[in-house]
From TrEMBL:
<dbReference type="GO" id="GO:0005524">
    <property type="term" value="F:ATP binding"/>
</dbReference>
<dbReference type="GO" id="GO:0005829">
    <property type="term" value="C:cytosol"/>
</dbReference>
<dbReference type="GO" id="GO:0004831">
    <property type="term" value="F:tyrosine-tRNA ligase activity"/>
</dbReference>
<keyword id="KW-0648">Protein biosynthesis</keyword>
<keyword id="KW-0694">RNA-binding</keyword>
<dbReference type="InterPro" id="IPR002305">
    <property type="entry name" value="aa-tRNA-synth_Ic"/>
</dbReference>
<keyword id="KW-0067">ATP-binding</keyword>
<keyword id="KW-0030">Aminoacyl-tRNA synthetase</keyword>
<dbReference type="GO" id="GO:0006437">
    <property type="term" value="P:tyrosyl-tRNA aminoacylation"/>
</dbReference>
<dbReference type="InterPro" id="IPR024107">
    <property type="entry name" value="Tyr-tRNA-ligase_bac_1"/>
</dbReference>
<dbReference type="InterPro" id="IPR024088">
    <property type="entry name" value="Tyr-tRNA-ligase_bac-type"/>
</dbReference>
<dbReference type="GO" id="GO:0003723">
    <property type="term" value="F:RNA binding"/>
</dbReference>
<keyword id="KW-0436">Ligase</keyword>
<comment type="similarity">
    <text>Belongs to the class-I aminoacyl-tRNA synthetase family.</text>
</comment>
<dbReference type="Pfam" id="PF00579">
    <property type="entry name" value="tRNA-synt_1b"/>
</dbReference>
<dbReference type="InterPro" id="IPR014729">
    <property type="entry name" value="Rossmann-like_a/b/a_fold"/>
</dbReference>
<keyword id="KW-0547">Nucleotide-binding</keyword>
Length: 413
């Protein structure tokens, strides 16, 4: 984990290492609030850590925050999260749960089989006065005001509700409850969660006199300083119904030269000696390392069986031009949207770029057209008010392109 770049801070690394060596049923947990119906690639680092731990014999415990999603983590936010209904939270829990089944082995046959739990099981049944009496004495306002998430919000003079202020207490209590119910000894998280994690280790030690550990990974940014997983087209989602396997592959294939070796260590299981060999590639040869990264990362999430079709789509779209306006080749891996024949001449391409996730907004689609980067097949779109006509389709399909590397298909119905 150290050599791949997963370690940032740990409450007691030597004691954690010793505990892992001694305990055949060592359990580590990672928590996610159900604030969306899919996780994005910014969450992938933590999932990869859980995967590595499971392959080393540890039991992963995935905590879905059905209850804490009703509160909202204030970390890194300038305003309160939108309040979610119970129905929306249940839908989101179903959506994000699917991702973990791709990376972890769940079951009850082996000691290392992963389990998934929901903190709604214990948090929603708490009685307020009893909880304050039993747990409130272990937290001081003085200490809570020193948390980075609180200090940043106050420094920006952004409101911090009492509801959000309670979040760190609830997360700490999660650790205590997981320690009691499932003998969990380690909580994982990003470096921005350090304060919340430490609170959980201290609460468990003080209440149950049980030593548990916290470990954070670095927050990943790209070489140009951008947050990992954020692109001009929006978030890189991990669910296939929100982002196609082809688009996911393209995200990794477009990695900057300066990031590719680091990302190979973090987001693939390629052995380190092989990654070291790839690090020797220079100039255009580094594209081979990018393809290894794209193939390996995509196979982990969507399965290796999707790769041949992705390669065929990439080759037909971007390696050679079609004889019919650049709209030929295999388009089955591209994101798709439908257009009713009665809507021809009335739906603007800017709307379709947004529906296909090729741009994050209509304004961005207009800028793309103005800059000459928007095309129908290989034909440049000159008019930002352009609407699709019958002649734009070949065999009932129209390929819209955003730049050289992003494309989607409009299907005429």
């Amino acid at each position: 984990m150290r050599d791949r770049g997963y370690l940032f801070q740990c409450t007691n690394l030597d004691a954690l290492d010793e505990s892992m060596m001694k305990d055949d049923t060592f359990s580590a947990y990672l928590g996610f609030d159900a604030t969306a119906d899919s996780l994005h690639v910014g969450s992938l680092l933590q999932i990869m850590i859980l995967r590595h731990l499971q392959k080393s014999g540890c039991r992963p415990v995935v905590l879905v925050g059905g209850a804490t999603s009703k509160v909202g983590d204030p970390t890194g936010k300038d305003e309160s999260r939108k309040m979610l209904t119970d129905e929306a939270i249940a839908t989101n829990v179903d959506g994000i749960s699917k991702v973990f089944e791709k990376f972890l082995t769940f079951g009850d046959e082996k000691a290392s089989d992963a389990i998934m739990v929901n903190n709604d099981e214990w948090l929603s049944s708490l009685k307020y006065l009893e909880f304050l009496r039993d747990m409130g004495t272990y937290f001081t306002i003085n200490r809570m005001l020193q948390f980075e998430s609180v200090k940043q919000r106050m420094a920006r003079e952004a409101p911090l509700s009492f509801l959000e202020f309670n979040y760190m207490i609830l997360q700490a209590y999660d650790f205590l409850e997981l320690s009691r119910r499932y003998a969990v000894k380690l909580q994982l998280g990003g470096s921005d969660q350090w304060g919340n994690i430490v609170s959980g280790t201290e609460l468990t030690r003080r209440v149950d006199r049980n030593q548990v550990f916290g470990l954070t990974a670095p927050l990943i940014t790209t070489s140009d300083g951008k947050k990992m997983g954020k692109t001009e087209g929006g978030a890189i989602w991990l669910n296939a119904d929100k982002l196609s396997p082809y688009e996911y592959w393209q995200f990794w294939r477009n990695t900057a030269d300066a990031d590719v070796i680091r990302f190979l260590k973090l987001f693939t299981e390629l052995p380190l000696p092989e990654i070291e060999e790839l690090s020797a590639l220079k100039g255009s040869s580094i594209n081979a390392a990018k393809e290894v990264l794209a193939d390996s990362a995509t196979a982990l999430l969507h399965g290796p069986e999707c790769l041949p079709k992705i390669h065929e789509t990439a080759a037909s779209l971007f390696a050679a031009k079609s004889s019919v306006g650049g709209q030929g080749g295999d388009t089955s891996s591209l994101s798709r949207t439908s257009l009713d024949r009665s809507s021809l001449g009335s739906v603007r391409v800017t709307d379709l770029f947004l529906r296909l996730n090729l741009t994050a907004s209509k304004k961005e689609a207009k800028r793309l057209i103005q800059g000459g980067g928007a095309r129908i097949g290989d034909v440049k779109i000159e008019d930002e008010n352009k609407c699709l006509e019958e002649g734009d389709f070949v065999d009932g399909e129209c390929v819209l392109r955003a730049g050289k590397k992003k494309a989607g298909v409009v299907v005429l119905e």
